[in-house]
Design goal:
It is a single chain. By secondary structure, the chain is α/β, with parallel strands linked by helices. The protein is about 40% helix and about 15% strand. Strands 2-1-3-4-5-10 form a six-stranded parallel beta sheet, sandwiched between helices. A two-stranded parallel ribbon has the order 6-9. Strands 7-12 form a two-stranded parallel sheet. Helix 1 crosses helix 6 and helix 7 packs across helix 9. The termini are far apart. The protein binds NADP nicotinamide-adenine-dinucleotide phosphate. The site of NADP nicotinamide-adenine-dinucleotide phosphate has 25 residues, from helix 1, helix 3 and strand 4.
Length: about 290
């Protein structure tokens, strides 16, 4: 019998891409967002899960306003820590596996080589701290949890760096972009495809599920400035871009200087193939202009 896969926070960037990636899936996908299933309410989650009985839950819901979280720690904690705890406890109660999405912001960004899954964490922001607490809550509540940390997510949905650079690039003659923060952009459509592939694999053969932390971003490394240059080049925008240090663009939440993720584990365990960020950016810009 086909597995049921519940996706929470499904109206966000990643959830919207999972809807598309799962369109031809052999599994039965149920997509919910806060209006249908508020994952901060334990009673609601318990009742929903006991009726639906999904085999797998993919939690894309999060409080993602990184700067706002600095002054809104309570809500960030509720969505990023308490909700995963509830999902973990209630998924364990029905024997479901939990796939939860996390972030490169759990690291302090002081490394000089890609972060492996077991590298020391040291979040520098409220957002990062609440996401880390959410990871820990998943494992505490459900041993059958898989955490997928990602970075620099963008897509045609929602607000993100690619859409902001296109909008500002068309409005302005020049822009300063931070060049001393290094990471890997991730097209949400690629991550969505990887998650759907993993979910299908483990629903067909549950023994292939290996709980634990995984990293996924697109291949390749760049600065925000490099990323902006490529976005403008691909979209035919002629705005003058200048590299600046992060110190000249202060934000309420501290950003990691270096947040490149080592993706060896997800490639080896689940056979995931990861496109280079430039190839995926071409596809996203094409989508945005179609
Ligand atoms: N965006 C990035 O650059 C980035 C980078 C690294 C990791 N991540 C992680 O990747 C995951 C997906 O991010 P995303 O960019 O797709 O996020 P997103 O676009 O902000 O989507 C999150 C979704 O969760 C919903 N949500 C909020 N509170 C909820 C609740 N109580 N119950 C159910 N749903 C709720 C949101 O609804 P509302 O919009 O109505 O609040 C939204 O639809 C998150 O775990 C995030 O931390 C993101």
């Amino acid at each position: 019998m086909e597995s049921t896969i519940l996706v929470t926070g499904a109206n966000g960037q990643l959830g919207s891409e999972i809807k598309e990636a799962a369109a031809n899936s052999a599994c039965r996908y149920i997509f919910t967002d806060v209006a249908d299933l508020d994952i901060t309410c334990q009673e609601t989650v318990r009742s929903y899960l006991s009726k639906l009985k999904p085999e797998i839950i993919i939690n894309c819901a999060a409080y993602t306003a990184v700067d706002k979280a600095e002054t809104d720690a309570e809500l960030a904690g509720l969505v990023n820590e308490q909700a995963p705890r509830i999902l973990a406890q209630e998924s364990a109660a029905i024997g479901a596996k939990l796939i939860h999405i996390s972030t490169d912001y759990v690291f302090d960004g002081m490394a000089w080589k890609p972060y492996s899954e077991d590298a020391a964490v040291n979040p520098q922001s409220v957002y990062g701290a609440t996401k880390l607490a959410g990871e820990q809550a998943c494992f505490a509540g459900n041993t059958q949890s898989m955490i997928v940390r990602t970075s620099w997510l963008y897509s045609r949905h929602g607000a993100n760096f690619v859409k902001t650079m296109i909008r500002l690039g068309k409005d302005r003659e020049s822009l300063n972009v931070v060049s001393d923060q290094i990471g890997s952009p991730t097209w949400a459509a690629d991550l969505a495809q990887a998650l759907v592939a993993v979910a299908e694999k483990i629903s067909a053969q549950p023994k292939l599920f290996v709980p634990g932390i995984y990293h996924y971003s697109n291949e390749g490394v760049c600065s925000w400035y490099d990323f902006a240059v490529k976005i403008h080049q691909l979209d035919g925008i002629s705005c003058k871009l200048s590299p600046i240090p992060g110190s000249l663009y202060p934000t309420p939440a501290k950003r990691p200087h270096y947040s490149v993720l080592d993706k060896t584990k997800i490639k080896e365990i689940y056979g995931v193939q990861i496109p280079h960020w430039e190839a995926s950016l071409v596809k996203c810009i094409y989508q945005l202009n179609s």
